[in-house]
Amino acid sequence: MKLKNVLIAFLMLIGTTLMAQEKYEQATVSQFDVNTGASILLVSVEGQPFKRTKLSGSDFESPYDISPLLKQVATLRNDGWEVWNSSSSVVGFGANVTYFLRRKLK
Questions:
Q1: Which of 64, 67, 82, 93 sits in a 20 to 30 Å window from 16, CA-based?
Q2: How far apart are CA 95 and CA 79, in angstroms?
Q3: What is the model's pLDDT at position 40?
Q4: Please, which pLDDT band fits residue 47 given cuts at 50, 70 and 90?
Q5: Domain that holds residue 70
Q6: Is residue 12 part of a domain?
Q7: Of 47, 32, 21, 42, which Cα lies nearest the Cα of 95?
Q8: Could you tell me if residue 55 is inside a domain?
Q9: What is the DSSP string of the chain?
Q10: Strand partners, 44
């Protein structure tokens, strides 16, 4: 009888935990090759194909300027998205900066 009660309590705990998990939409915003003058801004929301925007030298002030990326992130934040992670890397002559965003499902 005790085993049955423990099993029922365990299943109820797991069920409650799974129902309590928050559900989110996911988005990524990346800027590639920021130090070569041939940058690309990529935006994807909920696994949709990336929206690709080629950036020219007039879009940023220096080889390490990520202001186009930050402007896009600010636009998403104004739409209710929150930044939950970011990463950056430099490989050869290129660089990559990525912001990961999420928004609670309604």
A1: 82
A2: 27
A3: 85
A4: confident
A5: 23-104
A6: no
A7: 32
A8: yes
A9: -HHHHHHHHHHHHHHHHHHHS--EEEEEEEEE-TTTT--EEEEEETTPPPEEEE--GGG-SSTT--HHHHHHHHHHHHTT-EEEEEEEEEETTEEEEEEEEEEE--
A10: 28
Q: Are 81 and 101 in contact (CB under 8 A)?
A: yes
Higher-pLDDT residue of 9, 65 = 65
**Tokens 């988005």 -> residue:** 27
pLDDT at 20 over 90: no
What is the number of structural domains in the chain? 1
- Specify if 10 maps to a domain: no
- How far apart, in whole angstroms, are the C-alpha atoms of residue 20 and residue 32? 37
Beginning with the edge strand found earlier in the chain, give each strand of the sheet holding 51-54 in spatial order.
Answer: 51-54, 40-45, 24-32, 94-104, 82-91
pLDDT at 35 over 80: no
| pLDDT confidence of residue 88 | 87
Which tokens hold the place of 32? 């590639």
**Does 85 reside within a domain?**
yes
